[in-house]
Amino acid sequence: MKIEQAKLNGQNDWLNWFLIGKNWQLVKLFLCLIVIWIFIHEKYLVIPDLNQGVVSDVYIALTVIYIFGCVIKLIKDPELFKKQTIFRLSMLYRSFKTSFFISIGLILLVFITTTALNLKIKDLINYEGIVLLVYNTVMAYNEYKIIKA
Q1: How far apart, in whole angstroms, are the C-alpha atoms of residue 140 and residue 136?
Q2: SS (H, E, C) 2-29
Q3: Integer distance in angstroms from the first to the last C-alpha of the chain?
Q4: Verdict on whether the full-model pTM lies above 0.90
Q5: For residues 125 and 6, what is the distance between their CA atoms, to the nearest angstrom?
Q6: How far apart are CA 149 and CA 143, in angstroms?
Q7: pLDDT in tens, the chain (149 residues)
């Protein structure tokens, strides 16, 4: 709306071009592709090698479809995309918070039990695995609640 107001206040050819037809969507697409390229270039988004078999090819294809699907959603309906992103981030935060406390409780329980029973299995236990398992379980439960609602 501010761009349209600026267009009405002055004669700016660039703003006129920007607001005609699908030029705004093309600019958004171009900016999204630049952001994706920057993420790939800075190694934040790493695409695995293509020569690792069928599973790797399927993974890469699904990742590319997901990325372009998100870009298309962003271009078609940015307000819905914003709401979905905020919902996902809030769900991620709640899941992280819940799994953090459950993981701490489980790790303390394992640590106290092994100390009380004088067992030497502390080196055999992978605490990161416990945290990951709890987080994935909490995320799966949240997804189940969403589907059931």
Answers
A1: 6
A2: HHHHHHHHCCCHHHHHHHCCCHHHHHHH
A3: 36
A4: no
A5: 63
A6: 10
A7: 655 665 566 656 666 666 666 666 777 778 878 888 888 888 877 766 666 677 777 877 888 888 888 888 888 888 888 888 888 888 888 888 999 999 999 888 888 888 888 877 767 778 888 888 898 898 888 888 877 76
On whether the CB atoms of residues 14 and 23 are closer than 8 A, the answer is no
CA–CA dist 128, 23 (Å, integer): 48
**DSSP character string of the chain:** -HHHHHHHHS--HHHHHHHSTTHHHHHHHHHHHHHHHHHHHTTSS-PPPTTS-HHHHHHHHHHHHHHHHHHHHHHH-HHHHHHHHHHHHHHHHHHHHHHHHHHHHHHHHHHHHHHHTT---TTT--HHHHHHHHHHHHHHHHHHHHHH-
